[in-house]
Amino acid sequence: MSNETQATPTVVSLRDRTPTITAAEIVAHLVPPRQFDGASLENYRPDPEYPSQAAAVEAVRSFSTAQEPARGLFRRKSAPRSKPGLYLDGGFGVGKTHLLAALWHRTDGEKYFGTFIEYTALVGAVGYQGAVAQLKGAKLLCIDEFELDDPGDTMIMTRLLGELADGGARMAATSNTPPNALGEGRFAAADFLREIQALSGRFETLRIDGTDYRRREVEAHAVVTGDLDAAVASADGTVSVDDFDAVIEHLATVHPSKYVKLIDGVDTVALRGVTALRDQTQALRFVAFVDRLYDAQVRVVASGIPLDEVFGAEMLAGGYRKKYLRAMSRLVALTLL
């Protein structure tokens, strides 16, 4: 019989945290999420039923090794100039983020990897010129889930990427389906190139067909904890315990760029009394919070309604449908950790 006893978890409250974050700290977090630490072209497994997936691997490999033609008098005029941008175009769950992370790992020198929201959060936190100063000199910028549903943010990102590209940065991006698209599998390359306008000529587009490997999570349900106190007591490490409504209110007081610090050092987030969200602004903040939980692979335990049911039918029928579906899929996964 084992004499080992489980250590008592450290219990904290997210509501007690008012994190601060510097531009340098935001930039330090611009790396692939933990689950893609080992992503490579070699461990991406193409579906043989979709040849475009194997073709995508080779295209990313070629992009990662492409060199700009030599400058000056001895540049060969006939040498084709490779475009500095690559856009990975496909539906849900075809491995675009894996390929983007693999490209990041294959690139030497200064490089950054973040979601569209993380880059715009950097601009929001330190201003446009501050963001340029922090990212200047990068050899590669990877932008995952490029948002096309906010014209203002899209224009800011287009300007930012253009300035960095003029400084020699190469870019790779994936994109969310725009609000007027019906069906999450619809390819969005034309919409992406139209929205980024002046930058469109700098991107090669690469279409990746396939089925959603995460579809089983979207069709599943988040686990509901009957006895939250018992779940907290049996958890390891540091556990945050809060009422769901209180967390939603607290998120409104914290800039989204600081959400990563809000959960710093937390191993499990416990949410008591989950209810449906009625306000879209609150829902979008919660989506951003869920993204940070997912990137950090923080386990979630919750009582009340299943977390994948917090977004009502009206929200799921609106322009942010894909964001909500992604958050639902991630919440299911986090409750199963």
Automatic annotation (TrEMBL):
It comes from the Bacteria. One of its GO terms (molecular function) is ATP hydrolysis activity. This is Cell division protein ZapE. Transmembrane segments: none annotated. The keyword Glycosyltransferase does not apply. Keywords: ATP-binding, Cell cycle, Cell division, Nucleotide-binding. The keyword ATP-binding applies. GO terms for cellular component: cytoplasm. InterPro entries: ATPase_AFG1-like, P-loop_NTPase. GO terms for biological process: cell division.
